[in-house]
Each structure stands twice: as C-alpha cells, then as structure tokens.
Amino acid sequence: MVSDQPPGPEGKPAGRRAWTRGGLSGRRRVLLAVVAGAVLLSAGGMTAAAFIKSPADQARSAGPPPADVLTAPVEHRVIKDSVVLRGQVSADQTVEISPVAAGTQDTARVVVTKLPYRAGDTLAGGKVVVEMSGRPVFALTGRLPVYRDLKPGADGEDVAQAQRALGRLGYPAGGDRKGHFGAGTKRAVDRYYASIGYEPLPADPEGGAEVAAAQDAVTEAHRAWQDAAGGRRKTRAAEDLGKARRALAAAEAANGPMLPASEVVFLRGFPARVEKVNATVGTEAKEKLLTVSAGSLVVDGDLDAARKDLVRVGQRVEILAEATGDSARGAVASVSEAPVQGGEESTDGDAGGADTGGEYVVKVSPDKPLPGELAGQDVRLTVAAGASKGKVLAVPLSAVSAGADGRTAVTVYDSGSEDRRRVEVTTGTSGNGFVAIRPRTDGSVRAGDQVVVGKRQGGDG
C-alpha cells in the first residue's frame, strides 16, 4: 500500500511515525489527568473527612460529657433550722386624735388654729400636739385611755395616772392622796397650763360665784352665832355656822381647774412619733386630725399555715431592716391561735385554728429598744426554729438515701481510687439543707470525708 504522505528521512512514511508519537503523547496526557484527578479527589476526600462525620461520630461528639461524681464534705457543725418571715415594725400603741369640743366651750365651729408637728416628727411628753379653736390638746404619759373630764373632788385610777404624769413634768400633787383630785392636784394643773401658755378651763363656770356665796353665808352665820344669847339660841346658831362652813368647804373643793377629756391624750411612752397629719391650720377640724404612735417598738410577722408548727413562743429571732441595714435580736412573744384575714383574726373553722387561707400573726419582742426610725418599716425575720445540741456530723440532705429495707445510708467516695462504700447511718436534726448523721459503726464516717450527693449530667446512675 502506497502512503500518500511524504516519506520520512529513512524512507518510511512520515505520517505514520507522526501519528504514533501523537497517540503516545495523548495517552500520557490522559493518564496524567486521571492521576491528577485521583490525587485531587483523594485530597478532597481527606479534607471532607475532617468535616463530615458518621451518625455514630456525631452522636458521640454531641452527647454529654463523661459522668462525674458530685460530692460534698462531711462537716462537724451545729445544725440550725430557721423560718424566714416578712414583718413590720410598729409601736405597741397608736392613737388617733379627733376633735372633741369641751362641754364648757362656747364655739360655733372647731377650727384647727395651730399644728406644731409634721408627719415623722417626734413628740415629747407634756407638749401640745394640736390647737383647736384656741384650746390645746397635749400628750401625757399613761396607759389608761382618757374617758371622762377630771374635775376637783374626783377619785380614781385615772386621777392617779394624771397625778403621776404631771409629777414627771415637775408639777407634783402636793399633799393630795393618790387618786384624789384635791387642792394639790389643782395647783399642779394650774402650774402645768401656765407652762404651756394657756388658762385651764374651770370645772364649773359658776364655781367662783358659788364659793363667794358660801363665804357670805359663813360670815352671816358667824355673826348670828356671836349675837345669839346663851342657851338654845346659841346652840342653834353654832349648828348653822357649822353647816355654812361645810358648804363653803364643798364649794371650794369643787371649784378650780379641770383636766378636760378633750384636751389630753395619754400615751404609753415617750418620745412618741407623729405618723400622719390630716389637717391644715385654718380648716375645720374633722375626724382623725393626727395619728400618733407611742410605746416601745414591736414587730409583727406573717406566718403561713404550713409553717405554723415550727414557730413557738420563746424562740430566738434575728431582725433585719433591709432598707437601712439595721439589725437586732429578739424573741417570739406570741403566735395567733387562728389565721388573720383582712386585718382581723378569723373565728371560722375549728378550735384548733384550721387554715382558712389567712396568715398567723407572730409578735416579736426585741431584746433592746429599736431605734425610732424603724417605725413603719418592713423587715426580714429569721426565726431559729430548732438546733442540734452542740456540733454534730452533718451532710447535705441529698447525701442521704434509703434502701428497699428502709435503712438510711450515705455513700463515702474516695476521689483517689474512685472507690465507693455505702455506710448505714441514723439521721437526726435537720435544717437549712443539712441533716445530722450518726454512723451505725463508729468511725466509718468522719468529718472531712467526701460523700456522694449526685452526678453531673451524663451519669449512668
């Protein structure tokens, strides 16, 4: 077969050799491309493997960490059980001052004419709290509320209370016997009113005239006795003179200043505190002009039914005023027998004070007088409801478990060897998250040992 290609240098057809070289070169290029592709695919597969994981690998990487045992140390401590309540500080006496016009005053209206104090001010004994229609209302020391006008000649415990109060201010009742409004008490009342800048009201507006008439009667009777001849006339004149003198003594005893119920308020202690003022000078006096608190400060706490049995009279209490940081100590003075609803003690339910949805009132008596600025403040009360007798072995409540046989135990954990041993214990006082334990075998649990309280997420049991 004759080639139509030009002959090569050796007389062979040039086209065939050329074709053979070209074919080998092409196949090498294909092979190199295949190898390069394989290398690229391999590299790509290795790179992808770094990011693509099997479902099993994904589950392992997304799962929780290996289980770690949670432990707590066994402590040698006093266990205290406490109950935390909210409470409010208030005085043990609150008095509302309202206008009560004295019966001897002839006034068309009762108008506020002076207001010496503002809400929050302190008030000393013997000071005028408010003036109405020119007449004072002052505060004296006493526990018995005023219920009548105290007039010369009166007798009673309320008179004795007024005598003591005036005596504290420097105005003693002189020679009067205790509880009798005599001449000495009248002098004390006169002197006290003069000290505050007022004239006392007379017990009887006509008293002076009655005394004068009685004095005239004594004068006439004395003259008649002098002029009477002896015998029966003299005797009768003497009787008339004696009768006139007795009438004069009675008139003088009844005459003088009084202590009107409208002008005095008795408070248990001083300094007192003006809580509210609901009046302004020049306005007509209406109900509840002022509210005054007095006496030692006490604290009332609110206790829910679920914890009532934990709080008893005599338990120690820590008082904390969170707003100011002031703290004090006291004791539970009383716990109401029935729950209180709407400010009044409920009488519904059985005699045992069944829970009707209200709260029980816990009265706390401070060890020392509380500062006056705490009056009206909300406080936190921590009642020590129970305590162990001295230091005991104690563990967190979560460290104690019960078996099927009902026996309680703790699991002691050795972090070095990861050994665990279950130790049977009996439990005692609990409080604030801890419980006292006593191992059935002496020495099997000691202070400082680590006990298992749980496992972190991912534990197997």
Blueprint (SSEs and pairs):
Blueprint: H1 14-51, H2 55-62, E1 69-73, E2 75-77, E3 80-97, E4 112-114, E5 122-123, E6 128-132, E7 135-141, H3 157-168, H4 183-195, H5 207-227, H6 232-254, E8 264-267, E9 272-277, E10 290-303, E11 316-320, E12 327-335, E13 340-341, E14 344-345, E15 360-366, E16 378-387, E17 392-396, E18 401-402, E19 408-414, E20 419-431, E21 434-439, E22 450-455
Parallel strand pairs: 7-8
Antiparallel strand pairs: 1-22, 2-17, 3-10, 3-16, 4-6, 5-9, 6-7, 9-10, 10-15, 11-12, 11-16, 12-15, 13-14, 17-21, 18-19, 19-20, 20-21
Helix pairs in contact: 5-6
Structural features, described:
With 461 residues, the chain is an alpha+beta fold. Helix content is 25%, strand content 31%. The protein has a 6-stranded antiparallel β-sheet with strand order 2-17-21-20-19-18, with no helix packed on it. Strands 3-10-15-12-11-16 form a 6-stranded antiparallel β-barrel. The radius of gyration is 50 Å and the shape is elongated. It starts with 13 loop residues before the first helix and ends in a 6-residue tail after the last strand. Mean pLDDT is 82; it is low at 1-24, 38-56, 101-105 and 343-356.
